[in-house]
Amino acid sequence: DTAVSQTPKYLVTQMGNDKSIKCEQNLGHDTMYWYKQDSKKFLKIMFSYNNKELIINETVPNRFSPKSPDKAHLNLHINSLELGDSAVYFCASSQQLEKWTLHFGNGTRLTVT
Amino acid sequence: AQKITQTQPGMFVQEKEAVTLDCTYDTSDPSYGLFWYKQPSSGEMIFLIYQGSYDQQNATEGRYSLNFQKARKSANLVISASQLGDSAMYFCAMSQLSYKLIFGSGTRLLVRP
Question: Minimal CB count within 10 Å: which of A24, A59, A87, B13?
């Protein structure tokens, strides 16, 4: 059973398009995250939700909008995609806000052409 | 400002030998956690080990141990008896009271047969 699953695994799209990445966790965790890993492998947090409530919103363009319909899901919608959005996006979850051991999904490689 | 530094972009180790991956951190929070994650070439992020700032003993998980020196603000990962499957990127990370997990830039480890 996959604990944190992301779809799609690969996403290739053109500039200006709108796309979504879905994430689901079956661990019963309260907190979910989106991280971005750039071409230099640097990982940076984008968003964090705890029980469907937005907790962390880093300096991310508002073209990125997370949505958490329930605490097991955290989707990422990106409007008007730009070349610089090309990266690997990781979804993660943790048991609670204070329990920082993250369980990561396998990542979504987004390529914007 | 909180910061994680990994000064070794790449390292080699001979199979069956031990290797130490360096990590230093900077934070003004009295309570924090330190983590190591492994990212193999397949891309997933795998949790390895955790050390709490108030833990008296160094954390160990199988062949992984964390050499925690609080006064020096270092949290080095020691891998004993290296295996070929240990070849990967290794990330040090720190959690903070602001509920963010921040990552270092990573160290690429290559295990030679």
Answer: A59
